[in-house]
Amino acid sequence: MISSLLSESGLSGVLVPAAAAAVIAYLLGCFNGAVLVSKYILRDDVRTHGSGNAGLTNFYRTFGGPLTMVVILTDMLKAILAVLIGAGMARHLLLNAPMIAVLGKYWAGLFCLLGHMFPCMFHFKGGKGILSGGAMALIIDCRVALVVWGGFFLLAVLSKYVSLGSIGAGASFPVISWLVYRDPIILLLSLLIGVLVVWQHRGNIRRLLSGTESKFKFHHKSEEGRE
Q1: How many angstroms separate the CA atoms of 8 and 168, rounded?
Q2: What is the DSSP string of the chain?
Q3: Domain membership flag for residue 227
Q4: Is the overall model pTM greater than 0.90, yes or no?
Q5: Quick check: is 119 in a domain?
Q6: Per-residue model confidence as pLDDT tens digits over 124-170
Q7: What is the pLDDT of residue 226?
Q8: Cβ neighbour number for residue 84 with a 10 Å cutoff
Q9: Domain residues for 157?
Q10: Is 64 contained in some domain?
Q11: 8 Å CB contact between 56 and 71
């Protein structure tokens, strides 16, 4: 159990690296690809278009083009870097135990998503965390990634609703995390991550239930897309 490993290292040995990892991961998460590209390269803030969300889908529906790949790479790489930093700090500053590294990944991933969703440098108005969360799952465990990504693509392709795939991915994350690790601390962190992702899609859930949610289509410039 992770809790027993943490108790062995002592409170002082846990708090400082945990706080440092949280701050670094949050700040990395604040580098929102859709906002950076639209605001500083295209000079047209994506949050003033479509759904107003600073996410990949709204960016693609609004602007399209090769800069979409820059958004993808930015949001994925920042999450990968945050998770690797969290794992490294947990492993080397706390205990050289595999499960501690896993804890570091979930911990840093949570704060990276908080930075992505609520970036302090962009008035706390960010994205919904699917791309960054998916990248985080890839680094955590291939089994977690397979379920999260598989569920996303299955639901999104069959329904043509990206939001439905995103909600399914967020909901499945704590389930597969528990099945893989069977640890209450990992479960708690994964629940927080999953709840955050689903909560960020609450508007999409309302539109799905009312039948007004937009289906995904290949890009044509429009300001009425919703993520």
Answers
A1: 37
A2: -HHHHHHHH-HHHHHHHHHHHHHHHHHHHT--HHHHHHHHTSSS-GGGSTT---SHHHHHHHT-STHHHHHHHHHHHHHHHHHHHHHHHHHHHT---HHHHHHHHHHHHHHHHHHHHS-GGGTT----SHHHHHHHHHHH-HHHHHHHHHHHHHHHHHH--HHHHHHHHHHHHHHHHHHHH--HHHHHHHHHHHHHHHHHTHHHHHHHHHT-PPPP-S----S----
A3: no
A4: no
A5: yes
A6: 988 999 999 999 999 999 999 999 999 999 999 999 999 999 999 99
A7: 42
A8: 15
A9: 12-210
A10: yes
A11: yes
Within-domain flag for 3: no
Contact in structure between 17 and 87 (CB atoms under 8 Å): no
Q: Retrieve residue 208's tokens.
A: 């799905």
Burial class (CB in 10 A: 0-12, 13-18, 19+), 147: buried
How many structural domains comprise the chain?
1
